[in-house]
Amino acid sequence: MLHDAVLVCRKDLRIELRAKIGLNQVAPFAGAVLLLFGLALGPSRQALEPAAAGLFWVAVLLSAVLAVQRSFAVESAHAARDGLRLSGLDPAGIFLGKGAAIAAQLLVLEALLTAGVALLFGARLAGGIVLVSSCLAASIGLAAVGVIYGVLSSAARVKETLLPLLFLPVAAPVLLGATKAWDDALAGRAGSSGVWMSLLAVFAVLYVAVGTVAFGPLLEDT
Amino acid sequence: MMLRRINSDGALRVLGTLALLGMIATVWLGLFVTPNAVGYADGTVRLLYIHPPLAWVMFVAYGMATLSSLLYLWPRTRHPRFDHLAGASAEVGVVFTGLTLVSGSIWGRTTWGVWWAWDPLLTTTALLFVLYLGYLAIRNVPGDPETVARRSAVAGLVAFLDVPVVFFAVSWWRSLHQGPTVNLATGKSYVHGSMAWTLMLGFVSFTLTYIWLMAHRYRLAVLRDREGDEGLEAALAERWAEAVR
């Protein structure tokens, strides 16, 4: 299973490295979202700085929708999904591999956005361990939910509108937990973010487990 | 078995009549018989007889939808009837969630002074509303009936799993809502006398209404299925007759 996961993850990341859709479209989109937040709330730093964590995570969530859509657009072109299904790879492995690839892309995106909020909103980066570990847990959770709903909605002709409707409400706890953990860390209270970190961890474990079990039947269906 | 019995015309009519009578009695008791409680803005306590029952039905409906999804996914109990049941229950659940939000909002305006407050129960309910709208959207994605049923069952479970996570997340975030009126775990009630009876009647009549609505939706789904099958058979027979002629 893990071997298959590594194969699928490497395949997806290699496609991303060559096509550079993430770098050329998703990352600039996330940047544009930050700029728009700045225009909507700014220019006063007093308004932007306290909101930095929340705006950061909303930008991540919106970009995650695009990353998931991209991950399944790759499979729907040239009947690649049939190839994947016939490849004999363990469905759980495919789920973990696609999830890991999306999580890796989200982490890169989060690194870029972190620089963005520090630069544009004047957020003072503190509590590095909490910032990094919440990014890690949140990315895994978002990627897991994203892959489950990605495959569920990929059968629909209206997948562009269906995926955000399914994905964003389920991801609400991640938005809340990650924003609160970041708020605490940025305000220099990294010690009090424990409950939010555990929420992010529970979410990630829950949906990785569900996806590992449920992905097989869903992949056959689409 | 139980479903088949509920599904007969006569039983449905009796159920509908009971639900209607229960509703009328609840409205009459709630508006004219029960006293106005101290500590509430004028008359708003009467929302007590509809708001908790609406929320209760919402949970029953989603619980039913989840149970049916589980039964559909379990290979031994897999049957299209559980898929229809999940769909019917979730549809009614979404309607009751909308009503819970509206009645809660009106109550909030009179007690807290705002139409909307970022209270855990309220926020969770709003997210539930959107979650299950998504579930209904995925049910409408066309495909082979078995595929659609399996896809919907998984989507139903994924949505339901999110509910406790959302609830705890939002509870840690903030808390403003008044405590539950009836503690379901201990059976202890915080209202007494005619108020308690009216509330209990509210619970019963709203639950009956839910069952009645759900049975109708379920019947519609079964009939739609049958129409598809029989329509296909009729078309085949017609084509066959033409060929023989």
- What is the chain-wise order of helices and strands of chain B? HHHHHHEEH
Structural class of chain B: mainly alpha
Based on Cα principal axes, name the global outline of chain A: globular
Number of domains of chain A: 1
* Mean of residue pLDDT values of chain A: 87
| Distance from first to last alpha carbon of chain B | 44 Å
- Give the beta-strand count of chain A: 0
Low-confidence runs of chain B (pLDDT<50, min 5 residues)? none
Mean pLDDT of chain B: 82
| Beta-strand proportion of chain B | under 5%
Number of discrete domains of chain B:
1
What is the chains' assembly state? heterodimer
Helical fraction of chain A equals over 70%
Low-confidence stretches of chain A: none
How many strands of chain B?
Answer: 2
Structural summary, described in words:
The complex is a heterodimer of chains A (222) and B (245). Chain A is mostly helical and 222 residues long. Chain A has one domain (2-221). In chain A, 85% of the residues lie in helices and 0% in strands. The longest helix of chain A is centred in the first third of the chain and has 32 residues, at 45-76. Chain A starts with a helix and ends with a helix. With 245 residues, chain B is mainly alpha-helical. Chain B has one domain (11-239). Chain B has seven helices and two strands; from the N terminus they run ααααααββα. Chain B is globular, with a radius of gyration of 21 Å. Chain B starts with a helix and ends with a helix.
Topology:
The complex is a heterodimer of chains A (222) and B (245).
Chain A: H1 2-19, H2 21-41, H3 45-76, H4 80-86, H5 91-120, H6 128-153, H7 159-170, H8 172-186, H9 194-221
Chain B: H1 2-7, H2 9-33, H3 51-73, H4 80-111, H5 120-139, H6 145-173, E1 182-183, E2 188-189, H7 193-244
Antiparallel strand pairs in B: 1-2
Question: Brief description of this entry?
Answer:
Chain A is mostly helical and 222 residues long.
